[in-house]
């Protein structure tokens, strides 16, 4: 059984090791003992490590005191969680019998792990209530029961080939793990930038932040949206959901800034939308062509959604706006969503925080928005709508994501395991068209 750990001081330092857990203690009431089966690795995982102390992601699965030194020191080492699937191996919850497959936020280990759960809403949702996880955002404490026609042990095997139907099941699970069920792109498009007159827009941090976000802030019909890092997973989903907005609430245009121009152009051609779009490389952000295209849309507002743009992408976009006479009177809104695929230095983090204040960036947080939706819309209605939209996206995934391939790895250790994937993420080596998914059993 393998364990992957990451240095809290320098996320580029990481290790994996085999670990035979000591005799398992008796499982407590309202608990399940799970084993991770299938998880993804994306730039989000770098964020979980980078902000793991501040946003308590390190608390999710603390390192065990039984791990070999030095990896048993929780002040220096941690487990970065990942989205995907795990199976119940032992249980004291009758509604979650042995063999139940759960979707959620899992340790990057193949060792057994205990969760303490209470029933959530709607049916099939469960909430982790362990004391050490109470400061974790609610999104990361929610687990959902999943059913498959093919046993998960067969889906995650690396030995025998799968039937066509089983391969389709595995693929849908892999895409769901990789795109986190589409939640961020969905709530950003449908609730933060709401096109529903009966649904007031929600502040990108959620209503609990106590910050104002008006109908004017949330409307896009007079705006051009600039997607920085447009080929990232959340950006692609955001673009997909934008393309389905009614014409009277859709943006005037969509400028997609990306390292994969041809792929984004193909995806935009595939989408049934009337929104004019243009894909440009990072080096062409402030080009005359980009300026003329933006000006031709005649916006009164420009919404820059930063999904992890490379280098000086935000500043280059602002320079473009300031140097184009037709755009200088536009209201500019900057919404940071994700980070670049790299490990940030302390100096870069400090500089980023200062720039956020100076430029008046409006930070986005998926959990904060979803928490507000659950309070205002209700869990049954929200999850029914979200899940239906996600199933539809899965059916159309190759339209929205042309050329994207799931790259399956195996196990925790080595170049083909989680260890190798983390190394590639840290050095920005995962290409836009790759989706890293790991079978841990």
Topology (SSEs and partners):
Layout: E1 2-7, E2 14-18, E3 31-41, H1 43-50, E4 77-78, E5 82-91, E6 101-106, E7 113-119, E8 125-128, E9 142-146, H2 152-155, H3 164-179, H4 183-192, H5 215-218, E10 223-228, H6 233-242, E11 253-257, H7 261-270, E12 277-280, H8 288-296, E13 301-306, H9 313-322, E14 331-336, H10 346-358, H11 366-376, H12 379-395, H13 397-400, E15 405-410, H14 418-426, E16 434-439
Parallel strand pairs: 10-11, 10-13, 11-12, 13-14, 15-16
Antiparallel strand pairs: 1-2, 1-4, 3-5, 3-7, 3-16, 5-6, 6-9, 7-8, 8-9
Helix pairs in contact: 4-6, 4-11
Question: How would you portray this structure in words?
Answer:
The mean pLDDT is 93. By secondary structure, this protein is of the alpha/beta class. Helix content is 31%, strand content 22%. The strands form three sheets. A six-stranded antiparallel barrel has the order 3-5-6-9-8-7. It has a five-stranded parallel sheet with strand order 12-11-10-13-14, with helices on both faces. Strands 2-1-4 form a three-stranded antiparallel sheet, covered by helices on one side. It has two domains: 214 residues, Medium-chain alcohol dehydrogenases, catalytic domain (Quinone Oxidoreductase, Chain A, domain 1, Alpha-Beta Complex); 158 residues, NAD(P)-binding Rossmann-like Domain (Rossmann fold, 3-Layer(aba) Sandwich).
């Amino acid at each position: 059984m393998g364990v992957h750990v990451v240095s809290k001081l320098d996320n580029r330092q990481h290790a994996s090791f085999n670990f035979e857990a000591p005799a398992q203690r008796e499982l407590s009431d309202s608990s399940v003992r799970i084993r991770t089966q299938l998880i993804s690795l994306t730039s989000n995982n770098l964020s979980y490590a980078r902000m793991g102390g501040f946003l308590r992601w390190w608390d999710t699965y603390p390192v065990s005191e039984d791990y070999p030194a030095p990896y048993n020191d929780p002040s220096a080492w941690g487990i970065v969680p990942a989205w995907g699937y795990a199976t119940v191996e032992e249980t004291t919850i009758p509604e979650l019998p042995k063999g139940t497959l759960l979707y959620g936020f899992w340790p990057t280990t193949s060792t057994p792990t205990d969760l303490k759960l209470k029933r959530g809403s709607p049916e099939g949702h469960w909430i982790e209530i362990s004391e050490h996880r109470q400061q974790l955002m609610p999104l990361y404490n929610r687990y959902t029961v999943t059913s498959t026609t093919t046993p998960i042990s067969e889906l995650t095997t690396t030995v025998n080939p799968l039937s066509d139907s089983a391969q389709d099941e595995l693929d849908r699970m892999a895409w769901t793990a990789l795109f986190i069920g589409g939640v961020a792109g969905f709530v950003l498009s449908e609730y933060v930038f709401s096109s529903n007159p009966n649904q007031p827009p929600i502040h990108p941090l959620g209503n609990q932040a106590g910050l104002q976000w008006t109908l004017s802030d949330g409307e896009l019909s007079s705006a051009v949206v600039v997607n920085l890092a447009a080929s990232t997973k959340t950006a692609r989903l955001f673009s997909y959901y934008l393309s389905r907005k009614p014409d009277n609430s859709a943006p005037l245009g969509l400028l997609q800034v990306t390292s994969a121009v041809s792929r984004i152009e193909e995806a935009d051609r595939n989408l049934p939308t009337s929104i004019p779009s243009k894909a440009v490389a990072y080096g062409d952000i402030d080009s005359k062509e980009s300026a003329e295209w933006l000006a031709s849309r005649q916006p009164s507002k420009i919404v820059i959604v930063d999904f992890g743009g490379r280098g000086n992408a935000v500043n280059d976009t602002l320079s473009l706006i300031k140097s184009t006479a037709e755009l200088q009177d536009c209201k500019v809104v900057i919404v940071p969503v994700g980070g670049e695929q790299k490990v940030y230095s302390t100096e870069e983090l400090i500089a980023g925080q200062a720039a956020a204040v100076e430029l008046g960036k409006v930070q986005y947080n998926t959990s904060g928005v979803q928490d507000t939706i659950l309070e205002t819309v209700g869990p049954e209605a929200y999850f029914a709508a979200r899940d239906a939209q996600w199933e539809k996206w899965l059916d159309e995934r190759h339209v929205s994501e042309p050329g994207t391939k799931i790259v399956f790895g195996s196990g925790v250790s080595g170049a083909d395991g989680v260890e190798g994937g983390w190394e590639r993420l840290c050095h920005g080596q995962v290409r836009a068209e790759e989706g890293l998914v790991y079978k841990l059993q």
